[in-house]
Amino acid sequence: MPATPHPFPTHSAVVADLRDRWNILTTARRVAAFTKLDREEAEDLFFDLSSTDQAKLLVSLPAGERRSWMRLLAPDDAADLVQEAPEVERDGLLGLLDDPTRKEVNGLLAYAEDAAGGLMNPRYARVRPEMSVDEAIAYIRKQARENLERIHNVYAVDAEQKLQGEISFRRLFASDPAQTVREVMRTELVTVREHTDQEEVSRLFARHALVELPVVDAEGRIQGVVTVDDIVDVVREADTEDIQKMGGSEALDAPYLEIGFLHMVKKRAGWLTILFLGEMLTATAMGKFEGEIAKAVVLALFVPLIISSGGNSGSQATTLVIRALALGEVKLRDWWRVLVRELGSGLMLGTVLGLIGLIRILVWQRAFHTYGEHYVKIAFTVSLSLLGIVLWGTISGSMLPFILRRAGFDPASASAPFVATLVDVTGLIIYFTVASVILKGTLL
Amino acid sequence: MPATPHPFPTHSAVVADLRDRWNILTTARRVAAFTKLDREEAEDLFFDLSSTDQAKLLVSLPAGERRSWMRLLAPDDAADLVQEAPEVERDGLLGLLDDPTRKEVNGLLAYAEDAAGGLMNPRYARVRPEMSVDEAIAYIRKQARENLERIHNVYAVDAEQKLQGEISFRRLFASDPAQTVREVMRTELVTVREHTDQEEVSRLFARHALVELPVVDAEGRIQGVVTVDDIVDVVREADTEDIQKMGGSEALDAPYLEIGFLHMVKKRAGWLTILFLGEMLTATAMGKFEGEIAKAVVLALFVPLIISSGGNSGSQATTLVIRALALGEVKLRDWWRVLVRELGSGLMLGTVLGLIGLIRILVWQRAFHTYGEHYVKIAFTVSLSLLGIVLWGTISGSMLPFILRRAGFDPASASAPFVATLVDVTGLIIYFTVASVILKGTLL
Known about the structure:
Two copies of one chain form a homodimer.
Chain A: H1 13-21, H2 27-36, H3 39-48, H4 51-60, H5 63-70, H6 75-84, H7 87-95, H8 99-109, H9 116-119, E1 125-127, H10 133-146, E2 153-157, E3 163-168, H11 169-174, H12 181-184, E4 192-193, H13 198-208, E5 212-216, E6 222-227, H14 228-246, H15 261-288, H16 290-295, H17 298-301, H18 303-326, H19 335-368, H20 375-406, H21 416-439
Parallel strand pairs in A: 1-2, 4-5
Antiparallel strand pairs in A: 2-3, 5-6
């Protein structure tokens, strides 16, 4: 990547270089390099690391040095780090925190990592609805000194911590100082519960263009806030999982170069074996047509071309539909509209490939006399099969994600290889059926 | 998706329902429904729409109603809307803005949509380094009343607007009121230039866990700020493009149900045709082995199984590597480490499939006597070919993204179908070569 000219120094060159090489260093080398940095550089690096890497580094540091690093972290980041640390180290790490923070971190650890409760920060700016704007600002200033990480929205809560309304700090700050918070706050709020799944949370952010989202319990008491910067990671992680599944393997759940070799092979071997077992049906299908192939070997020549065209058109369709479902552009109930579109696409794409195939065979015949006296019939067999197979690939590729979601599975499992395998067997049947109709009495 | 019980009303049911159906309504129906809403509901809906939909709606509204909607938008959102509007409407829309905003919007329109300058908001909280903390806060309060959208970081600039330092508003707010801004601000800053590509910008956000990033010109004058909520859209958009390419079509650049039918077919037909032309080489390759197939028709039965196994293992490898490159987990210079890993994976995965294939043939032979007297040799031919083809698929699938990036192309073009096509032809050559060695003197 070409470096952008920066009028400002960012990290020191040492930190930048170390950060770049971090994932290929052994733990011992990481510790050695880290302890050589001055404090400011070390902090820069530490905050840049993922929770997993922070945890690995921290448990490798001498016991006496861990405390100051743990205490640098906000409660949600500390909770992430503890979650990533080995089981036996967790209590020790929690013990390094001061009492109120440990309580907060323990609260967060009670939630699943991928739920709103596991994403949220338990520290937020709170005011009472009956305060004046000026009182509220002074009260937030006090909170900012004590424990706030950032101030975006300000939440008005009653004595029982029940959420009454919210206002952006910017708007509060710009309001008439003598008005009450109640007069300037919004009361139509988007909120989530602690156990809402993080992907649902990220859809709400996208849907309502949010920057911050309060998390409330069943009684409407505010528990914390999820901020949009956490959502960037959720989106990236969800997309990575989808992409890996769409490529026909299990999601790796760790960076490619960091995941253990055998672990990675296991995650790939599972699907590859399932697909292979499915693909074995092609040998069975081909076996059924062994007589036809023996009579007309020329038919075998086009088998790879025909089945791969079905696979490719199926890959396209399934990928487009999986992504549209993931983005919420298409809903389950839209399956019918997608079917109509894909019927049209399949017909057009199949016609294009069928025509190219027809021309290819006719040209080759004229040039090389490859296909014998019945070349016209062979050309039409291939051409019509292509139309049928592309149409079938497109339709099954586009409908499979709907079927999977309807059945409660992840639509992204309708991977390109899965669809290709599915289409291969039926593709062969279509091809040899078309052949037996067209070539009956001549080659067959 | 099951609705989360909400203790709060969010949008009115009318707005929520309308938002859900928006993309399937005709323009006339959108306008009719929109104008029936009361002002608050209409604002809720308007802000929830994408820039494209906002533009479509706005140009369909009566001329007299457009102004109040345009003026609701922040400059960066207004710029996005104008960019999405038809060419002939743009000047009219710009004319609806007040003079200072129009100047800002015109400035933003000068940048490419996908550059930092096109993402940034030209309004940010600015102070002078020599102000006291209390003066700075009062000064920001004045800016908040006038034109700020949000306050996250505060930027200290000199008389020429050159960026001197930054401080989070939270920290400024919590600082000793008598200190100067210079004493509390950070001076080691991450910044970008106006023309930095948005994907590079999003990598900087991820790399440094940023919430806001100042954009500066060549002289270090601050031009605006990019905020993390804009980055969520950049990430989503980039992932969508990658996914669509990885599925073997061009990126659609519009939601599936909204893109014109012929436009979509065109985007899919291009790659499908290229892949088809490539796949035609399989017919040529098969033609070269026509003699062998005629002598041993049984060989043809395993062709689909063999080539699809190469395609599937190639899909896996290419997908994992493309994603790792996109996330920056793997860099161009890591190709050698990836090659070593994939050599190992390919050998292990190939051995697994080869063994399953071997067992399958031996079991079928015992059960159905399908494969004739030379079934052991056939079993070894298939098994060894599988090992070779899976290894080859894995290696070419993992290296292709590196080759594409090195050559200046998008690694995501190494789609699953592309790799499958590449592997099919070589897979056939491997298979028939292995067959001719093992079966020489018996079947061949």
